[in-house]
Amino acid sequence: QVQLVESGGGLVQAGGSLRLSCAASGGTFTKCAMGWFRQAPGKEREFVAAIDRNSISTSVADSVKGRFTVSRDDLEKTVYLQMDNLKPEDTAVYYCAAKETMYGGFYVKPNSYTYWGQGTQVTVSS
């Protein structure tokens, strides 16, 4: 059983930056592949970024490549999403997700993940 709590969302102007945090408890964090997803009003949840259990491999969506960076801190049991040069189209609720796995690698499909946080709102004004 893994619990995830996101934080760090807020209102920023286009071109600004935010760093989202996802604190994990329960389970074994080092066994979890982690992902970030977002959902805007009227749209389905979409992949944003993912990182494997060993911080060896990462993946980011084409729409945020070069602007967003995912990382994790095993001592703090936290995964981060650094968002730079934010655009209005980045406005969404951002969700953290975890998948316990015995293997390395990352996952980009929402249904691959077992545990989800409650989300944090990111609003980017133009």
Q: Which characteristics define this entry?
A:
126 residues, mainly beta, seven-stranded mixed sheet, four-stranded antiparallel sheet, 11 strands, globular
What can you see in these coordinates?
It is a single chain. The protein is an all-beta fold and about 130 residues long. Helix content is about 0%, strand content about 50%. The protein is built from no helices and 11 strands. The chain has strands spanning about 5, 10-15, 20-25, 30-40, 45-50, 60, 70-75, 80-85, 90-100, 115, 120-125. Strands 2, 4, 5, 6, 9, 10 and 11 form a 7-stranded mixed sheet that branches. It has a 4-stranded antiparallel sheet with strand order 1-3-8-7, with no helix packed on it. A hairpin with a 4-residue loop joins strand 7 (about 70-75) and strand 8. The radius of gyration is 13 Å and the shape is globular. The N and C termini lie far apart (about 40 Å). The mean pLDDT is about 95.
What's a concise summary of this model?
The protein is mostly beta strands.
Basic shape: globular
Could you say which structural class the secondary elements and strand pairing correspond to?
mainly beta
Helix segment tally: 0
Indicate the proportion of strand residues. over 45%
Tell me the major beta sheet: 7 strands, mixed
Order of H and E elements: EEEEEEEEEEE
Radius of gyration: 13 Å
> What oligomerization state is this entry in?
single chain
Distance between the termini: 40 Å
Q: Helicity, in percent?
A: under 10%
Topology, number of strands? 11
